[in-house]
Amino acid sequence: MGQTAEPEEKKENIEKPDSASIETPEDTAKAETADNKDVDAAAEAEENGTGEAPGEKTSDEEAPDVENPDVEDPAGKIPDVEDPAGKIPDVEDPAEKAPDVENPAEESSGGEDEEEDFADEEDEEDEEEAESLRAWLLFLLVSAIIAAVVFGLGFGCTVRKVYVRGNSLYTSEEIAEKVISDDSRLRHNTVFLTALYMTPFAPQIPFEESVRVSPVSYDEIRITVKDMDIGGFIPYTGRNLYFSTDGIIKEITPLVLKNATFVTGISVTEAEKGQKMTADNETGLAMVLDILQTLKKYDLKADCVALTKAGNIVIYFDEIKVQLGKTDFELKLSKISQINPYLEGRSGTIDLTNYTSADENIILK
Prior knowledge:
It contains 9 helices and 13 strands. It is of the alpha/beta class. The longest helix has 52 residues, at 104-155.
């Protein structure tokens, strides 16, 4: 009896298995049956294209709350996400915020760029040096040309021969002396003289309307002058009043023009350069101007035209005295122009006071 009681105590010490943790053959069979159903349902869903298997919860079903001490409550800690259509904040592009990552390939290409830049700088420096050298060479060339021109102008273009045309008041030698001055070495240079007389600063020759110098060769020039229309001159207040054949005053100067015709018997009352002169005897002045115009027409050079107190005109050609009277000056001077070559070197008087076209002979007394 005593042996029987001992096993009972041992039974009490054996823990009873939890009914929930004991897996019975019946439970195993049920689980296998459920798994087989799930597999069949999944296959059927695949065939139907639904992609949902039985036993899976859809998005509409709410997941049961699971208490996990390591995971915070999503409902309390996760911030609310606003509607994507309107309130979602701008999301920065990761490409913009990504830190710069050094690339060995890029570093190597950067080194090549640096080498190329260095080579370009060297090329630019070489080009600048070449340009500077070209500039210096150009400067030296221009300086040499200028020096050669100056030397040539100074020593190779000295005037040695002069041609003068258009002059009647002065001789050719007088014109040349007035243009080529001994006071200045430059006034002996063909180039300088040509350039000088193209400017308004060129020295003017008295009684000449214009003076022009043109080069014929490196040592020859041509001087072309245009004489003033000087009909004659009358002494006036200690000077000489030069006037044209129409009575316009050209110059008032103490100079004496050799080839100008001296007029006497006229007293000038008013005289201003560029204005027509007035005299105390306007009739006599008109007669004198008429004679001067006719002399110019027949290219006759008279030394003197005199108005006598009686109102007659007398002309002097060197040693020849010609009495013209008061009228028919055109007829009388035309005859003088015809015999003028025969009067050269002779002396005497020719009286044409009463000469008419019917008269054939002109007598020199």
